[in-house]
Each structure stands twice: as structure tokens, then as C-alpha cells.
Write a structure and sequence with these properties.
By secondary structure, the protein is mainly α. Helix content is about 55%, strand content about 5%. The chain has 4 domains: about 130 residues, no CATH class; about 160 residues, Orthogonal Bundle (hpI Integrase, Chain A); about 45 residues; about 45 residues, no CATH class. Helix 7 runs antiparallel to helix 8 and helix 8 runs antiparallel to helix 10. The relative contact order is 0.09. Keywords: DNA integration, DNA recombination, DNA-binding.
Amino acid sequence: MNQNTSSTRDGSTPLDDSFERYLQDKGKGRGGDGGNYRRNAARELERFAEWAAGDRGDDDWTGITTDDVDRKPTFEDLDERVFREYARHLAGDRGLKQNTVQTYYRYISAWCGWCVNEGYLEAHYAQRASAMAPLPEDDGRKPGDQQAWTSEQRHAFTRHVDERARDAVEAYTTLSEDTDPLDKQRARYAALKAARDRALVFVLAYTAVRVGELLRDPNDPRRRGVRWEDLSLDDGSMDVYRKKQQWDAASLPDPVISPLRSYRKLMDPPTDRWPVFSTFDQRTLATLVQDELADRGKHPDTIDDRRSEFARDLLLALDEDVRPPSITTDGARSILQRLSEAAEIDIDHPKHDYLAPHGGRRGMGEVLVRAFGYTVAARYLDNSEEMVRERYSHIEAGELGDVATEALSEIDDYLGTGASPG
């Protein structure tokens, strides 16, 4: 520890004085103010600070400071016994699963390690064996990441959204010439929405791209959602911002090409910088259109007149090239919930009553591992082979079980004939 650090960060520093700088270091984007990790870590640090101050826990819990001290908890109050008590506090919450307890504790442990490097603490107390002893065994499962779309579910889901989009597009394209303009616009809007939903489901079902790589993340400015300029339908590829923090090409297999082509033709975006999966939220689009046209110098009355010419603000946005944002990852989950219910898909899962986005990726992983093995699956999933083997270990276990069954059958056959298996 250098002298400058130790002179400005002594034990009397309140714990929460370190939070913002830690979160900036861990955050993403300009100023470190984005990213899911930052948001989740901030939540857990706030909970830890409340617990340390005596604001969380049992009724008789007064915090980590002594009763005769009236101040915020500081770094001089921390030692391995404090982290042991917090681990016990987390483990005692019956509403948390084992792996969730481990996850929450890791956020606090990571902050503790950072505090050591920054000179707030002398030792990484949170990683000591005695501190971690109350934590439950990690079952190795990632919370909520176990659903996998089966082949039957994938086929039923894609068939449903395909039929829905075909019907909507046909209803729009077969309208008579004397159809009221606003009615024709409503039909086009319905066709666009159905075509977008179909393209989204097909991409999630067959590409195995992470939903966070495909759509907008409000907490990470770099993840603005794929645009048409990122797609090469002729080459069957799509540029996405990967989990490893760099742009990379993802494959677009044959089943997704036609839905994307049809959707693009119907939308006819003014530029290739438009998002592929645009939001259709009326409130968002109304505000966006009004603000953008006002910035272009349009009078409020003129803006109102222009909006009245269109059945939906999305269609005005297309006409005026007012680029909307991509749907968010949460928005995609809402869409899949709506579509799963409409498709009446049979879903048996303890956490999700709909076909969740990660289930499409995991389902494709199952297909690839079984068909081509772990090495090819790892390349397609943009994961290490080691991780893919771990995630899909049940497949190898099943195959080994088949081998064992076959071996036992051969032994039984030998024994049945009186022959020696050796």
C-alpha cells in the first residue's frame, strides 16, 4: 500500500463512500454508468450497507457497530467475522436458492477484493474460509438458465408465428384499391408487427445468439440492438456485440433468412441504420416523433396534422425517417410471453410459464451437441468447449448410460448362452 492511499483512506471511511467509485470501475460505457453487472452490484451493495447499519435482518440485529457508537459503519468495523455473519444472513433467507445466495455473496466479495487493492482494507476478509463457511453448496446451476426449447416446442412456436404473419401480410396485400387509407395503414401496421414477431422468434430459435447481443440493453449504451446494416442475408451472417465485449459475426441459418427478408421488404426502412427489431410501443414512438419533428423546426400544429395522417406513429416515423429504438431484452420477454400464450405451447418448467429467450439458445445447443459434438457446438454458441461440456453434461451422461446399457446387455447375452464375456 502506498503512502498516499493509506493517508486518504483510513479505517474511519464509511463503507458507502467507496461504492460509487467501485461501480464506475465495474460499469460499462462512458463514465462506467452502464451494464447489468453495475446495476446488480449496486443493489447488493445497498443491501449490504443496510444490513451493516442494522436496517436489515432480525428484529434484534443492530448492525456491525457497537451499541454505544452512533455513526455509519466504516472499514475499521470490517473483519472476516462480519462477512461470516453476512453469509449466514443470506443463507438464512429461505426465499433464496442456494446458487442465488452464492451469487449475492460474490458481489460483496468482489467489492471487498477491490477495497483491498484500493487501500480501504488490509485483507480480503470475504474470501477467507471461515467467512464463507455458512454459504450453502453451489449446485452449479445458473438461476433461471435451465429451460431449453424442445424440438416439438420450437416447431410449434415457429409454425404459429409463421402462420400468423402470413395471414396478416395476406390481409394487407390483398386489400382492394378503394380501401380507406387509414384502414390500409392499420393493416400494414398489423402485418409489420406480426412479421417482426416472426423474425424475432425464428432468430432466437435457430441462431443461438444471446438475447442481450441481439436487442437493446438500457443499462449498456454499446448494446443498441442489431441494425439492418449489421445483417448480410446473402452471406447468412449477422454482426453482434458479443458477451466478450467485441463485435463478431454470428451465423444466420436458412430457416431465418426468409422471415427476415419478408420483414425487411414489408418495412422498407429509410436507411440501413434502422433497428431490425424496432419497438412498436405507441407511447415511446409518439414522444419520439413529436420531439424529433420539433427539433427539425416543425410547428406543433404541423406535427399534429402530420400525425393525423397516419394510423400509427411508427408509420409516420418510417415516412419521416425518425429512427426508433430497438426493443429491449425485457420487451422481448413480454413479446414471447404473449406469443407463447397465443400459441398454446405446452410448457412444463418451474420458473417460466412461457418460452423464454435463453431457452431458444439452450435448445439449439442441445441440437448441435447431439448432432455434431461439443467442439462444433462451442463455436456456434460462442462459448468455450469446456463450458459447453459443463452446460450439456447431461447429454454425455445419457450417451454413457446407453453404452453401459449395451455392455450389460452383451454380458446378459453371454451369460444366457453359457459363454464367457471375456
